[in-house]
């Protein structure tokens, strides 16, 4: 393999043929920081979406006429189920990968 100009690699094949493969352009900074930024934004949005219930609590009570204790209990129950299932979901991700677990989650959403 010869390294040509401007990030183009030339691969020598068996019968003297050559194939040019271009390499992707380099970023001016470490790509890991992109991963950190995406994770930071994702976690920030996820945490805010989960805890926004406290802001929506009074309008939900007014709209549906539900009792405060019952509504807060349902929300707390959801947090509890999430806390109990998290280790099992983590183990599933370690064994089968995130793609399988996400597909299972998408499959479990329609039945409720």
Question: In words, what does this structure look like?
Answer:
This protein is mostly helical and 112 residues long. It has a domain at 66-112. It is 64% helix and 11% strand. The protein has 4 helices and 3 strands, in the order βββαααα. The chain has helices at 32-51, 53-64, 68-96, 98-108; strands at residues 2-3, 8-12, 18-22. A 3-stranded antiparallel sheet has the order 1-2-3, with no helix packed on it. β1 (2-3) and β2 (8-12) form a beta hairpin. α3 (68-96) packs antiparallel against α4 (98-108). It is elongated. The model has no long low-confidence stretch (mean pLDDT 84).
- Unreliably modeled segments: none
Helix tally equals 4
Q: Which strands sit side by side, in order, in the main sheet?
A: 1-2-3
Main structural class: mainly alpha
> What amount of the residues lies in strands?
5-15%
Q: In one word, what is the shape?
A: elongated
Write the element-wise H/E pattern from the N-terminal end onward.
EEEHHHH
Radius of gyration from the alpha-carbon trace, in angstroms: 25 Å
Let me know the largest β-sheet: 3 strands, antiparallel
The portion of residues assigned to helices is 55-70%
Between the first and last Cα atoms, what is the distance in angstroms? 55 Å
Total DSSP E strands: 3
Q: What value does the average pLDDT take?
A: 84
């Amino acid at each position: 393999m010869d390294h040509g100009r401007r990030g183009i690699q030339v691969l020598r094949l068996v019968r003297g043929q050559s194939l040019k493969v271009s390499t992707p352009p380099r970023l001016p900074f470490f790509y890991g920081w992109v991963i950190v930024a995406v994770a930071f934004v994702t976690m920030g949005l996820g945490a805010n979406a989960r805890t926004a219930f406290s802001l929506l609590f009074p309008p939900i009570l007014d709209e549906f006429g539900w009792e405060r204790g019952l509504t807060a209990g349902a929300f707390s129950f959801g947090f509890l189920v999430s806390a109990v299932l998290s280790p099992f979901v983590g183990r599933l991700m370690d064994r089968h990968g995130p793609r399988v677990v996400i597909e299972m989650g998408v499959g479990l959403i329609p039945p409720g």
